Predict the structure.
Amino acid sequence: DVSKSAARVVSIVPSIPWVIPRWIYKFHPLLSPESVGSTKTITILPSDLALYQRTQPFQGEVTELTPEMCQERHQYVQSLVGRKQRSSPLGEPTNWNEPTIIAISDEYVDLVNEEKIKAIQGRLVGIDDDGRLQLDTTADTSDALSDIDYVICATGYKPNLHNFLSSEILSKLDYDQEDKFSPLTLAYNTLHPSLPNLAFCGLYKGPYMGVMDLQAQLAAKLMSGSLSIEDEAYKSALKTSETMR
């Protein structure tokens, strides 16, 4: 949006992400008898549902990604993105042994291709008095970093639970204010056995609607008494949370 009114935009990213659109189109074979003469159908899903749908039977929660798992995920996301990013100045992620980094935008790659956004891989370390940016980068930035009027720091969010939950409660949850990935130790990223009347939705890596809906259903069923969780299951789920953190 900024690029539509600014003379130029410099986008500094610490790692090159995969940039996927907000809606994902997927082709599936038609298996019903009525599908004579047509072999495929199209499913259109919001990007978070496309990334988090189950493609094979559940075989246990993954708490640590191996290089092979990371490579498979990169290949899958690349299939969603297509060739447009590969041929753009942004380029594609190069280290497929590390977890994927996802950005969601319908226009970012196009704006980079049109030179309305200058994408630089690096980190902002300071700003000079004349407005020139100081970067930790190996890229050529000689024409991009001077005469900057505004700086937008898109650094994400930090949890603010310490402002309204007591220190006693936070201690039970092993709260870490600086952890933006998983700030609490929770069973199923939602519950804690020592706090049966408290549940959390949306603190699972990010606010993915499909996950949040499942968290809300779990909390509602447990608090209404229509579902119970055995102590051993609670302990196992808390251990999984600790491992992931």
About this structure: The helical segments are 47-52, 67-81, 108-113, 167-172, 209-224, 231-244. The chain has six helices and eight strands.
